[in-house]
Design goal:
This protein is elongated. It folds into two domains: 209 residues, 3-Layer(aba) Sandwich (Rossmann fold); 62 residues. The two termini are 34 Å apart. The longest helix has 15 residues. By secondary structure, the chain is of the alpha/beta class. Helix 4 runs antiparallel to helix 5. The protein has a six-stranded mixed sheet, with helices on both faces. Strands 2-1-4-5 form a four-stranded antiparallel sheet. Strands 12-13-11-14 form a four-stranded antiparallel sheet. A hairpin with a 2-residue loop joins strand 9 and strand 10.
């Protein structure tokens, strides 16, 4: 297979009790930060864990840096760095022992580099993982991911539990990761302000399905928040309207501009927070 994408997901299905991931397909190319957003329970974490083969998929294909997760799992995982909301390392081992233990699975693991990142992120190497705070566990995972030559960084809510200063530093580290054009980051988040600052592409999930994957600028060009009277907003074509918010003090609608024109009404470009808010309120992209 040609190595055109760092991550290629095709027709991925996974049943998880009453919930399922449904026919998910997308690519991630080198050099970009991709944000995964959606309401709580829409499958963001399940998707990342299925890509990592922590959940065994039911059907579909996953390639990482040109390697099949089915046929070349070790080579595929060798290219992945993970920072998960739920730490998958050994809780009863120290930070340093975890580095040595899990580092043997990666051909480019550099233990001295790992210790340098631990020092940089203020993580004590001899401290057991179970004694670390949530934010410290995130820092530890990032230190490890940066120490084994990973090309695809998969992060599940990496900003959760971080103090504001390190959260800002984490955003800078993500930008550093992709700067040379050879590595990429996919991260799920509910902190859409982070994506407003650094996101290149946006994946939006709803009920286990991928609504779309677009670059951020295209998303901003496609959707708009329009203001008007109740009568004006109710007159908009239903297939154009994602969500109407009609109230006593304000009336607005989020619309898909590819489905029609409403240039006579005042409008503004939605922030990602607004976009996700109206999806969470029940908005539907046709």
């Amino acid at each position: 297979m040609e190595n055109d994408h760092l991550l290629e997901v095709r027709h991925l299905h996974k049943q998880l009790g009453q919930f399922s991931l449904k026919d998910i397909s997308f690519n991630i190319e080198p050099g970009y930060i991709t944000g995964l957003i959606g309401r709580n329970g829409t499958g963001k974490s399940s998707l990342i864990k299925t890509i990592l083969n922590l959940y065994e998929k039911d059907s579909g294909t996953i390639f990482v840096d040109g390697h099949s997760m089915d046929e070349e799992e070790n080579l595929a995982k060798n290219a992945i760095g993970v920072v998960l909301d739920e730490c998958i390392f050994e809780e009863n081992l120290s930070v340093e022992d975890n580095g040595r233990t899990f580092g043997i699975f990666y051909t480019k693991y550099d233990h001295e580099l790992f210790l340098k990142f631990c020092e940089r992120f203020q993580i004590q190497p001899r401290r057991k993982i179970k004694k670390l705070s949530k934010g410290q566990k995130t820092r530890f995972q990032l230190a490890f991911a940066l120490s084994h030559g990973a090309k695809l960084f998969l992060m599940d809510e990496p900003s959760a539990g971080l103090d504001p200063l390190f959260r800002q530093e984490l955003m800078s580290y993500m930008q550093d990761i992709v700067e040379d054009g050879t590595r990429s980051v996919l991260f799920s988040t509910h902190l859409t302000a982070d994506l407003d600052k650094i996101g290149d592409y946006i994946l939006v999930m709803e009920d286990g399905a991928l609504l779309f994957c677009e670059d951020k600028e295209s998303l901003f060009e496609r959707f708009s928040i329009v203001h008007g009277t109740k009568e004006e907003l109710l007159a908009l074509p239903d297939d154009m309207v994602i969500y109407r918010d009609l109230g006593e003090y304000k009336n607005l609608a989020m619309v898909d501009k590819t489905k029609g024109i409403c240039s006579s009404l005042p409008s503004h470009i939605p922030s990602l927070e607004e976009f996700l808010y109206y999806l969470q309120k029940g908005g539907v992209i046709k």
